[in-house]
Specification:
Keywords: Aminopeptidase, Hydrolase, Manganese, Metal-binding, Protease. One of its GO terms (molecular function) is metalloaminopeptidase activity. Its cofactor is Mn(2+). The structure is a single chain. With 672 residues, the protein is of the alpha+beta class. 31% of the residues lie in helices and 19% in strands. It has a 6-stranded mixed sheet, sandwiched between helices. Helix 12 runs parallel beside helix 13 and helix 15 crosses helix 21. The two termini are 46 Å apart.
């Protein structure tokens, strides 16, 4: 099947339209005021019904937690799992809601402050995570609720790690701290009970194999490498439970379309290991894959997966884990292998309880690290897919500039649609990798903005236009942002754009020793902005990217989140480079390329650590009109000219069929 069909990748144009029974239009006040991404949803009735359920004797809770994630810990979720969006009206991809009897709190990060303010009604209080004095939702539950509060949770949606952290939390500064709150697992999700018949059904789209000429490695080889990776655990485990959808898709060389823009499918997996005290006597791992029956033809998948992988119904996972736990407890302990089951640190409390907490060990998913380092086939796929993507980008921006010069009236949505059309004509195209951020003027300051097809702003020549977009190809995933001005930019716009460019160049040209993390080098992207007192952009500088998988992939990244400091950058990883600046109510600027982490040769190799740098695979010119040449150094000017020249050399031969795009590319790639 293909992902470009709108019924799969844009089933509802955006998940927002599935969240309300009465759709109302966004409003745009003037060209210089903040644009509403969606009309505020009234939540009074929904909250009242939720609080009634909270009071019922069978629940009897003082607070209820509604996270963003689904039962697999997914960042991007199916419409049937958008519970937090439904109860609050805020449909950003990150956030956690806490509802008490007299408050409704929304915790989210800086990417979504503006969006949350616009989308939530007066019932809600925005908790701006990351700002001084604002607690995390976990800390709020620990320190801000009355003594002995009962906190309702869905055990399939809260992680085992969060559950343990909240259960064992204590105010270390107060020896006589109040009695801790009690977490109350409620098996029937209270939001689902209210949403009821209006809740969309769970997708059951086909699961298809990804051929080895695209994945670069067989399932058998991946299972062997996984066994090797977990063998260092002490004691050696009997099994590993997999819950993250992209981990499972990668391990078994399968793809699906159950979640828009993410080629994944609802599934669980359990990998069984057969370690021996004598390594040469260890046998191959085998696995059980849990899939929705309506989404597969087992005979076809069996021929691809082989005899070492069993396929079972998706809904059988908890019974299987319970039986596994019972079996291990009653079995004898074999030499070199203990009665231990590994579960990922993002696995749910329900998964941990099904196995039994006495025999589990919570660890970072070993698949995440294996998946993050791409093999040679995957890396070449990234290069080739970005070349093709560069063709679509050149055709789109050339088309857009010509239309604006002709006086055409084009909305942000129409621009996004035209870009998707150009991409859909490319070989190996399977769909978009996320909803295109096509934003003009003040909408560019909304970091994860998405235009409403029924009512959105008109792209104007005298405003900055920010376009963040990407595609899924069989051989790679793309993610690129460019900022353009089709008229005459102001001095302020040029200065801020130049500072963003300088931060981008600093990351692209970085060389650093092995062991360096993205947390350490993140500030290099912000230094130029800091020179002008422009503060911080409210997002990370870069994230990992999956290979024909999720556009956001860990464990590494460039950013201020301390978790990035636990994952050093390694050769073969993919990471984006996307500093930005956002003038609320005026404009936004972001420049984003996709980079491959690579080994580099330096004149010296102090400490024999080896050094790393980046290879840029994104091929789209950076507009020189937005550059203040008085600010940039000779080296920075050389970098910009070299980059645009490289784009011309690689993309122009692929544009011989489109004279308009070729002329535009030649113009934009001229040196300064």
């Amino acid at each position: 099947m293909t992902f470009c069909h709108r019924s799969l990748l844009r089933p509802l144009l955006s998940s927002w339209r599935t969240l309300s029974t009465s759709r109302t239009s966004a409003r745009y006040i003037t060209s210089t005021t903040l644009t509403q991404q969606a009309m505020t949803i009234q939540t009074s009735e929904r909250l009242a019904r939720l609080r009634e359920l909270m009071k019922k004797p069978e629940n009897n809770v003082d607070a209820y937690v509604v996270p963003s994630e689904d039962q697999h810990g997914s960042e991007y979720i199916a419409s049937c799992d958008e519970r937090r969006a439904w109860i609050s009206g805020f449909n950003g991809s990150a956030g956690c809601a806490i509802i008490t009897m007299d408050k409704a709190l929304m915790f989210t990060d800086g990417r979504y402050f503006l969006q949350a303010i616009e989308q939530m009604d007066k019932n809600w209080e925005l908790m701006k995570q990351g700002l001084p004095g604002v607690p995390t939702w976990q800390n709020y539950l620990t320190n801000n609720l009355p003594a002995s509060s009962r906190i309702g949770i869905d055990p399939t949606l809260i992680t085992e790690s969060d559950f343990e952290g909240l259960t064992n939390s204590k105010d270390a500064t107060n020896a006589e701290s109040k009695p801790s709150a009690t977490l109350v697992p409620i098996t029937t999700n209270l939001i689902d009970s209210i949403w009821a018949a209006d809740r969309p059904p769970r997708p059951k789209n086909p699961v298809v194999p990804l051929e080895e000429n695209y994945s670069g490695e067989s399932v058998t080889s991946k299972l062997d490498r996984l066994a090797s990776a977990v063998s260092s655990n002490t004691p050696k485990p009997r099994a590993l439970v997999l819950t993250a959808l992209d981990d499972i898709a990668w391990l078994f060389n399968l793809r699906g379309s159950d979640i828009s823009y993410n080629p994944v499918f609802f599934s669980y997996a359990v990998v069984h290991f057969n370690f021996s005290a004598e390594p040469d006597k260890s046998s191959k791992p085998n696995a059980v894959l849990f899939l929705q029956r309506d989404a597969i033809e087992p005979a076809n998948l069996k021929s691809v997966l082989g005899t070492s992988i069993d396929i079972r119904p998706y809904e059988d996972i908890r019974k299987y884990l319970g039986d596994l736990g019972t079996q291990l407890r009653s079995s004898s302990t074999e030499k070199g292998q203990e009665k231990t089951v590994l579960i990922p640190d993002k696995a749910s409390l329900a998964v941990a309880q099904a196995v039994g907490k006495d025999i589990i060990k919570v660890v970072p998913s070993p698949i995440t690290v294996l998946k993050a380092i791409k093999n040679a086939t995957e890396l070449e796929g990234f290069r080739q897919s970005h070349l093709r993507d560069g063709v679509a980008l050149a055709r789109y921006f050339a088309w857009l500039e010509e239309k604006l010069n002709e006086g055409a009236v084009l909305t942000e949505w129409e621009g996004a649609e035209q870009l998707e059309k150009f991409r859909s004509e490319l070989p190996l195209f399977k769909g978009l990798s996320f909803d295109t951020i096509s934003s003009t003027g003040p909408n560019g300051a909304i970091i994860h903005y998405s235009p409403d097809p029924k009512d959105c702003a008109v792209i104007k020549q005298d405003q900055i236009y920010l376009c963040d977009s990407g595609a899924q190809f069989l051989d790679g995933t793309t993610d690129v942002t460019r900022t353009w001005h089709f008229g005459t930019p102001t001095d302020e716009e040029k200065r801020t754009a130049t500072r963003v460019l300088q931060g981008h160049i600093a990351i692209d040209s970085a060389i650093f020793p092995n062991g360096t993390t993205g947390y350490i080098i993140d500030s290099w992207a912000r230094k130029a902005l800091w020179k002008d007192g422009l503060g911080d952009f409210r997002h990370g500088t870069g994230h990992g990217v999956g290979h024909y998988l999720n556009v956001h992939e860990g464990p590494h990244g460039l950013g201020t989140r301390i978790t990035y400091n636990a994952s050093p950058l390694k050769a073969g990883m993919i990471v984006t480079n996307e500093p930005g600046f956002y003038a609320d109510g005026k404009y936004g600027i972001r420049i984003e390329n996709v980079l491959i982490v690579k080994e580099v040769v330096t004149p010296w190799n102090f400490g024999d650590k080896g050094f790393l740098g980046f290879e840029c695979v994104t091929m789209c010119p950076i507009q020189t009109k937005l550059v203040d040449q008085n600010l940039i150094s000779v080296d920075e000017k050389s970098w910009l000219n070299d980059y645009n020249h490289n784009v011309w050399i690689k993309i122009s031969p692929m544009l011989q069929h489109d004279e308009r795009a070729l002329r535009w590319l030649e113009k934009e790639c001229q040196p300064i």
